[in-house]
Design goal:
single chain; mainly alpha; 3 domains
Length: about 230
């Protein structure tokens, strides 16, 4: 159960009890210094006050453990060149980067980005019969934690990168937000795969991608000129 639903609050002057998710709506800001001070200042009945204190003490203990693990993760990341490379992608933190490296193992065993997306379970299942091709929900095969981290990291990328944000909202309007989130996670997995395989950081991969698109456009132009140039 979320922590925001564990504490029952008494709102002074209103003479009624309210659950936290109905009374004090601060979301993540509730656990920042100002939000926590506001939470601790609310007048509660004796046992409710004790329950609040116990939960906040538990939160403090878990926060210390999380900080220790985060520091250990940062140290481990510095030892891994591949993880440092993957972290240059916007939205990708140390946990997502190291998880991607450990789960994928080596990029050479995959021939294309589509195989990566299939390996981590971010492609739809196909249920075809005869000439009818039907795509269902994503397969969800592979590592559950990596799939979760890719979805979360992709949402950070969407918020920070205009091109990703535009693509996300376009898909969300057409297919819904859930499908759009999965599509962005799949796109992120493919981007990380190619960065790793080519040995390029994010900035270098963007330059390479732009050059490749420019070359492709030039080739198409030359083909069109050769095909239609002799026609009057």
């Amino acid at each position: 159960m979320p922590a925001t639903q564990l504490i029952v609050l008494w709102e002074p002057g209103n003479s009624r009890f309210l659950p936290l998710n109905e009374g004090l709506r601060r979301k993540k800001a509730l656990w920042r210094p100002a939000g926590r001070q506001e939470l601790e200042s609310i007048v509660l009945a004796p046992w409710a006050s004790r329950r609040r204190r116990d939960l906040l003490d538990l939160l403090d203990q878990l926060t210390l453990k999380i900080q220790e693990l985060t520091q250990a993760l940062e140290v481990e990341v510095e030892k891994r060149p591949v993880t440092r490379l993957l972290r240059t992608h916007p939205g990708v933190g140390p946990l997502t980067a190291v998880a991607f490296e450990l789960v994928i193992g080596t990029p050479e065993r995959f021939y294309c980005g589509k195989q990566i997306a299939s390996y981590v379970g971010l492609v739809p299942e196909e249920k075809s019969s005869g000439d009818r091709r039907r795509l269902g929900h994503i397969s969800k095969q592979g590592n559950v934690l990596l799939r979760f981290l890719l979805v979360e990291a992709a949402q950070v990328t969407v918020r920070s990168q205009p091109q990703w944000r535009s693509k996300f909202f376009h898909l969300a309007m057409r297919r819904g937000r859930k499908i759009a989130k999965v599509a962005m996670a799949r796109k992120l997995a493919v981007h990380l795969y190619w960065m790793w395989r080519q040995g390029l950081d994010y900035t270098q991969s963007k330059k390479f991608e732009a050059a490749a698109l420019g070359l492709t456009a030039r080739v198409h132009t030359l083909i069109s000129e050769k095909k239609f140039g002799g026609r009057k």
